[in-house]
Task: structure prediction
Amino acid sequence: MPQPNVPGRGIVASYSARFWLLVVLIGLGAGLGGAGLIELLRAIQHVAWSYHSGDFLDAVKRTSSARRVLVLLVGGVVAGAGTMLLGRRSPGEVSETLWLRGARVPFWASIARGIHSIVIVALGASLGREAAPQQVGAGVASALSEWARLPDWQRRLLVACGAGAGMAAVYNVPLGGALFALEVLLGTLTLPLVLPALATSLIATATAWIALPTAPTYTIPTYPVHGSQIVWAIIVGPIAGFAAIGWIHLIARAHAMRPRGWLRLAAPIVVFTALGALAIAYPQLLGNGKPVVQLALVAKLSVALLAVLLVLKPLVTAACLGSGAPGGLFTPTLAYGVLLGGLLGEGWAQIWPGAELGGYAIIGGAAVLAASMQGPLAAVVLLLELTHHADALMVPTLIAVVEATVLARVMGAPSIYSARLSAPDAPDVPLETVCEIPR
Result:
């Protein structure tokens, strides 16, 4: 007797043996590609910032002011030159390719864009590192799907799965990567799509263990839930929603201001050099924001620094994006959220003390991330997998996530991914038009 929650032919959904072979190959390709890109990032960081071990932020702090400006100047040259060389061959963002270009990703151009992106992040650009492995995973999936002559809807599914698998591999988040592919990129959690997404992400994650650690990305203690955090989450949820809307509009404006012609070379040089100058006083601005998130999650940032970074980090990220440099927005968005949560939590603790301050940063980070991605489940699961110790805060986290996401939807805000599309009327819940699953 068929299950009522499984449409058509159920979990196999007419998938052939060739399809499942491609799922395995895409997982392997995304895992190897992701591991290779992170090794490249580390190698460049160690050379550029003159360190052999330890934390990226500590290495930057040990460098001279002149070196910070010089490295970012080099990063600007690399960003501009790479953009000029790729030119029209650039495959664009994965979301744009998936939603507007039939999920056809030029393989070698995708690899080149991924390498270009990871190099400039290693040199200090305030952009996310996840765009590179997503690009590579999507490129592998597209090439294999074309080779196997899969129908359009299966190709789109596998390209989304490849992008999610790339993200899963570099952050060690197999479930989060699968949910990112389904909820954020495809806008659905339909059961026939779940198994391919899970399979590609877990294969990619396990493959990346060859070179990457299995430890959580952020090391935090176990934070117990406190009554004050539940009340705070009710209050802060809408604030996080409005903050996410502002962030989305900032990203959309930056994307629209990307330079053309010879300015594609000049703009990154100017923006990156200015970022290097700012990094003399605030080295925390460099990179994707991972060190900032780590410090905020364990309440190691002063109130003054929280406030300054809350303003400057989104602005420099938007400036890097607006200069035409390729890069992701996942960790910068998370950083924005934890800075907001940490700052508001510091104030709330003066009114109602007792809760661990780092817990507020987790709740705020999840809420802003969920509303910005329009992916509440993906955001919560990603926070759980990135920290391994945030589950006790599930109730206040879900309260803030639901409120923030609903507010963003009611206000008509797109996601940070659909806000970057070239077409003005691009869909921000694209499943109905891109994945017609046989019933």
